[in-house]
C-alpha cells in the first residue's frame, strides 16, 4: 500500500512541523530503519541488566483475569469475565464507570521508590497508557479519560518520576500503547485499512510528544503495534525525532514494537514476544519482559500463591537472561488504591538481597564464551575483564561441584561471592573441567539463600 501522508490539520501543524518534520537531510538519523537501527544503544541499558515493569491502570479496579479485562468483556465476550460482571455489577455498568474507582488513595511514590531501590533494579518502566486508552498523566488529548480528570485526580506519572529521581539513581521509563481497543478514531482508521491517520494525528503523536517532553523518560517501551504497519504509526519519523532532537536524545532507549512485523527485526533492543527467553546467546541486545504473577501483568485479587513465581524461579530467569545477553524486566501489578502488595514487595526486596551479594556477576557483565555448563545442569556463566562467574542454581548434594567449561591454569583462583576464603578445586590445567569443593555452611552462615556464584579468576 502507499505510504500514508500527514494531512493538514490546524491544531497540530506547528507541533508536527517542529517535531516530526524537523528531521532534515543534515540530521544524524533519518526516518528509515537502516538509519534508525544504526544508532548505538546507550551503554547504561546494557549495563543495567535488571529492571521493574509496572502495569497499573483502570484494569486494576476489577483486578480479575488480567489487564485485557475490557477487551475480554466487550471485545471477545469471554464467558468468565462476562459472568463476573453480571454477578457483581449493576445492569448497564460500563468500563468507564470503573475509572472513578481508580482512586490510588494509598499511592505513595516515595514508598514505591524505596521498594524499587531495595530491589537492586537499575531502571523501571511504568505504564503511561495501556490498550484501554486511560492515561496516567493529565494528557491534553485524553479528556476525562486521564488520571487528573477522573479517579486519582493527580499526575501519577509525574509523581513517580519525581520520587524516583529525588530518591534513587534508577532510570525512569514509560510504557505506551500505540493503539486503543475502542477509540473511535482508531477504529475508523482500521476500517479504512489504515489509509487514514485520524487517530495518530489527534491522539497518538501528541501523546508521545507530551510524555517525552514532560517526563523525559530514559525508556520508551512501545506496545500495541501489531494490527497496523509501522508506516501507519509513522514509527521511524518519531524515532528519528527522538534520537535527533528530543530532550532525551542521548540517553533514551527503545524496544522493537513499532509496527506489524517489526518485532525482533528493528528498534533499539528486541523483546520479540512476551516472556522471551531463548536460552542461547543472542547477538542483538534483548529483553525478557516477564511477570511475577504467571497469569497476569495487572493485579489480580483472586490470584493463588501457586500463580506467583518464587525466588528460585526469578533468579534462574535473571541468570539465564543475563548470560545470553539480555536484560530482565520483572513485572508487578499495583492495586487500584496504589499499593504494592506484600508478595510483590517481598519478591522485590529478596531480589535486592540476592543482588547485594551477587550483583558483581550480573551488573555490567558481558556474555562469556559459554552460557551454561556442559556437565552440570543449572549453571549459567557471565563475564567481566577481571573474572568469569558461574551462577550455581542448585547446591551439589555431595558438596562437589563439577564445572565442565572452565579451563584452569596454575594461577587459577576461585571464590564464592559473599565468602572470603578461596575455594578448593582440582582439575587438569589447560584442559576443560574443574571440580570445586563447596564450603561447609550452616543455614545462618550461607552468603545467600537461593543461588551461589563462583568467581573464577585466571580461567579460560
TrEMBL record:
Look up the domain of life of the source. Eukaryota
A GO molecular-function annotation: alpha-L-fucosidase activity
Q: Which UniProt keywords apply?
A: Glycoprotein, Glycosidase, Hydrolase, Signal
| UniProt-listed Pfam families | Alpha_L_fucos, Fucosidase_C
Domain Glycoside hydrolase family 29 N-terminal span(s) in chain numbering: 25-360
Its recorded reaction(s) are: a neolactoside IV(2)-alpha-Fuc-nLc4Cer(d18:0) + H2O = a neolactoside nLc4Cer(d18:0) + L-fucose; a neolactoside IV(2)-alpha-Fuc-nLc4Cer(d18:1(4E)) + H2O = a neolactoside nLc4Cer(d18:1(4E)) + L-fucose
Per the UniProt entry, the Enzyme Commission number(s) are: 3.2.1.51
The question of whether Glycoprotein is a record keyword is answered with yes
Q: Where is this site: May be important for catalysis?
A: 289
| InterPro entries registered for this protein in UniProt | FUC_metazoa-typ, Fucosidase_C, GH, Glyco_hydro_29, Glyco_hydro_29_CS, Glyco_hydro_29_N, Glyco_hydro_b
Provide the GO biological process annotations.
fucose metabolic process; glycoside catabolic process
Can you give the residue ranges of the Alpha-L-fucosidase C-terminal domain? 371-456
Which region is the signal sequence?
1-26
Record's GO cellular component terms: lysosome
Q: What does this protein do?
A: Alpha-L-fucosidase is responsible for hydrolyzing the alpha-1,6-linked fucose joined to the reducing-end N-acetylglucosamine of the carbohydrate moieties of glycoproteins.
Q: Which family does it belong to?
A: Belongs to the glycosyl hydrolase 29 family.
* Subunit: Homotetramer.
Q: What name does the UniProt record give this protein?
A: alpha-L-fucosidase
Q: Which organism is it from?
A: Strongylocentrotus purpuratus (Purple sea urchin)
Amino acid at each position: 500500500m502507499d505510504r500514508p501522508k500527514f494531512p493538514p490539520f490546524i491544531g497540530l501543524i506547528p507541533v508536527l512541523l517542529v517535531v516530526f518534520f524537523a528531521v532534515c537531510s543534515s540530521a544524524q538519523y533519518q526516518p528509515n530503519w537502516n538509519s534508525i537501527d544504526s544508532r548505538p544503544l546507550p551503554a547504561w541499558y546494557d549495563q543495567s541488566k535488571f529492571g521493574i515493569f509496572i502495569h497499573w491502570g483502570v484494569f486494576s479496579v476489577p483486578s480479575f483475569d488480567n489487564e485485557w479485562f475490557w477487551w475480554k468483556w466487550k471485545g471477545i465476550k469471554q464467558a468468565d469475565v462476562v459472568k463476573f460482571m453480571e454477578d457483581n455489577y449493576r445492569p448497564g455498568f460500563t468500563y468507564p464507570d470503573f475509572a472513578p474507582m481508580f482512586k490510588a488513595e494509598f499511592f505513595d511514590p516515595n514508598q514505591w521508590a524505596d521498594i524499587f531501590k531495595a530491589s537492586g533494579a537499575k531502571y523501571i518502566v511504568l505504564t503511561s497508557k495501556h490498550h484501554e486508552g486511560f492515561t496516567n498523566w493529565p494528557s491534553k488529548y485524553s479528556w476525562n479519560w486521564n488520571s487528573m480528570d477522573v479517579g486519582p485526580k493527580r499526575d501519577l506519572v509525574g509523581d513517580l518520576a519525581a520520587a524516583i529521581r529525588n530518591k534513587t539513581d534508577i532510570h525512569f521509563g514509560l510504557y505506551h500503547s500505540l493503539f486503543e481497543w475502542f477509540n473511535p478514531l482508531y477504529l475508523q482508521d482500521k476500517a479504512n485499512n489504515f489509509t487514514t491517520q485520524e487517530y495518530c494525528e489527534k491522539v497518538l503523536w501528541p501523546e508521545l510528544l507530551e510524555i517525552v517532553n514532560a517526563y523525559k523518560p530514559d525508556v520508551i517501551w512501545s506496545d500495541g503495534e501489531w494490527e497496523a504497519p509501522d508506516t501507519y504509526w509513522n514509527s521511524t519519523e518519531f524515532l528519528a525525532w527522538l534520537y535527533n532532537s528530543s530532550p532525551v536524545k542521548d540517553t533514551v532507549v527503545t524496544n522493537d514494537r513499532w509496527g506489524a512485523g517489526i518485532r525482533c527485526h528493528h528498534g533499539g533492543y528486541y523483546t520479540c514476544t512476551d516472556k522471551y527467553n531463548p536460552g542461547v546467546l543472542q547477538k542483538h541486545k534483548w529483553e525478557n519482559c516477564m511477570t511475577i504473577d504467571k497469569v497476569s501483568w495487572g493485579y489480580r485479587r483472586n490470584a493463588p500463591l501457586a500463580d506467583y513465581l518464587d525466588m528460585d524461579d526469578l533468579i534462574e530467569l535473571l541468570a539465564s537472561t543475563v548470560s545470553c545477553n539480555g536484560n530482565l524486566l520483572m513485572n508487578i501489578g499495583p492495586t487500584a488504591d496504589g499499593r504494592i502488595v506484600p508478595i510483590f514487595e517481598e519478591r522485590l526486596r529478596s531480589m535486592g538481597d540476592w543482588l547485594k551479594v551477587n550483583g558483581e556477576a550480573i551488573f555490567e557483565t558481558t556474555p562469556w564464551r559459554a552460557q551454561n555448563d556442559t556437565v552440570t545442569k543449572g549453571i549459567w556463566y557471565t563475564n567481566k575483564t577481571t573474572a568469569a562467574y558461574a551462577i550455581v542454581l542448585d547446591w551439589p548434594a555431595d558438596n562437589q561441584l563439577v564445572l565442565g567449561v572452565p579451563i584452569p591454569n596454575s594461577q587459577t583462583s576461585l571464590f564464592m561471592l559473599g565468602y572470603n576464603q578461596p575455594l578448593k578445586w582440582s582439575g587438569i590445567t589447560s584442559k576443560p573441567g574443574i571440580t570445586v569443593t563447596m564450603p561447609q555452611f550452616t543455614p545462618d552462615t550461607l552468603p545467600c539463600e537461593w543461588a551461589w556464584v563462583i568467581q573464577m579468576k585466571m580461567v579460560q
